[in-house]
Write a structure and sequence with these properties.
Layout (H helix, E strand, L loop, with lengths): L3 E10 L2 E11 L4 E5 L6 H9 L6 E6 L2 E4 L12 E4 L11 H7 L7 H11 L15 H13 L5 E5 L7 H17 L3 E6 L2 H7 L2 E6 L2 E6 L1 H6 L4 H6 L4 E8 L2 E4 L2 E4 L9 E7 L4 E4 L5 E10 L3 E8 L2 E8 L9 E6 L4 E4 L4
Helix pairs in contact: 2-4, 3-4, 5-6
Length: 344
């Protein structure tokens, strides 16, 4: 399989258009993370790629082979795709090996392949256990091993670690994506968690209401989101009223440069920076500010600053937080984004 290209994809359930012109291009061996709020159409998109649903408009092609269009429909078993759904999809009456064997063709050297995928997914020695004798994380590894066993060229991961707690989920996800990278398998990971998406993807596609709003390298999506909505969906963001002119936007935090290649809208603008760009110093350049509030959060403290009439919460290491009433200056590290001020 080579490049996966999805063009102008539309899908409707009754009167509701759930996918509205999806365009994606996924190079062979790369990882695409699909991030978006609940109900935006992520699972529907995976199901169309897997061939579990027909499409009404558009095209899905793997290299030169069209898999789906209004006139072509290659059935799921002939697409060479592994699907790892959300938790709870193992056959409870089969052992780990039995679950993995299920997806393998009869003529294959099944014993050897089962041993290979057990080793690949870190499940050595667990082949004779039943699903209820495994932890949640181990069960999801079995689901991955089962998906990988037939050597698919594309693996679709639909929030497969949702049931695990945050730390385990992130480390598990990195492990699993590592396995997929080592085997040169192209993968699409659906997730609600921007941190997980940033950590593992080559491309991050942000989706809302059936539309891909931006698809780019994770760093680009984070620092240069295509819209205020993308900024909010990918992390905390500070929005300030201001003015744009050429490569600079001016707001309560001063005159800020725009990112390379970006141009500010002329006139009234909505300026965006990430909270960690806001820095405090007792003296030196920057906008004068006074500490008016402290909220201790353990590893960090939210420090409330008053800049004239404006209030701003700054996240600082607890030990470095300036005392209440301290007078100092705030300045911005790096560049900002600016969009035309919404008129409505
Ligand atoms: N078979 C179906 N029939 C009718 N509507 C459906 C069907 N499947 C999904 N939908 C609707 O399509 C929309 C997109 O659903 P989808 O499951 O793709 O979203 P999602 O982004 O994966 O959500 P989540 O993150 O909660 O899993 C939702 O409004 C959902 O109710």
């Amino acid at each position: 399989m080579s490049h996966i290209v999805i063009a102008d994809l539309h899908k409707r359930y009754d009167a509701v258009e759930v996918l509205r012109g999806i365009e994606l291009s996924i190079p062979q061996g790369s990882v695409l993370a699909l991030l978006g709020p609940s109900g935006c159409g992520k699972t529907t998109l995976l199901r169309l790629i897997a061939g579990f649903e027909p499409l009404e408009q558009g095209r899905i092609a793997f290299g030169a082979h069209v898999m789906a269009s209004p006139t072509v429909f290659v059935p799921p078993e002939r697409r060479g795709i592994g699907y790892v759904p959300q938790e709870g999809t193992l056959f409870p009456h089969l052992t780990v090996e039995g679950n993995i064997r299920f997806g393998l063709p009869r003529h294959a050297d099944r014993r050897r392949r089962i041993d290979e995928v057990l080793a690949l997914t870190g499940l050595d020695g667990l082949g004779r256990r039943y699903p209820h004798e495994l932890s949640g994380g181990q069960q999801q590894r079995v689901a991955l091993a089962r998906a990988l066993a037939p050597n698919p060229a594309l693996v679709l991961l639909d929030e497969p670690f949702n049931a695990l707690d945050l730390d385990l989920r992130r480390s598990m996800c990195e492990d699993v994506i590592g396995v997929l990278r080592n085997t040169g398998t192209t993968s699409i990971l659906v997730t609600h968690d921007p941190g997980e998406a940033f950590a593992v993807s080559d491309q991050l596609a942000v989706m809302q209401s059936g539309v891909i709003m931006q698809c780019a390298r994770p760093e680009t999506v984070y620092w240069q989101p295509a819209s205020p909505a993308v900024a909010r969906l990918t992390g905390a963001a500070i929005f300030l009223p201001g003015h744009g002119l050429g490569r600079t936007a001016t707001c309560a935090l001063g005159a800020l440069p725009l990112h390379d290649g970006d141009e500010a809208p002329g006139g009234a603008a909505m300026v965006m920076v990430r909270p960690e760009q806001v820095q405090w110093q007792a003296d030196g350049p920057g906008v004068p500010a006074r500490v008016v509030r402290h909220s201790f959060r353990g590893d960090h403290t939210l420090v409330g600053l008053a800049l004239g009439d404006m209030r701003l919460d700054l996240r600082m290491p607890s030990l470095a937080a300036p005392p209440l009433d301290a007078q100092g200056h705030v300045y911005i590290l790096g560049a900002c984004m600016a969009w035309p001020e919404p008129t409505a």
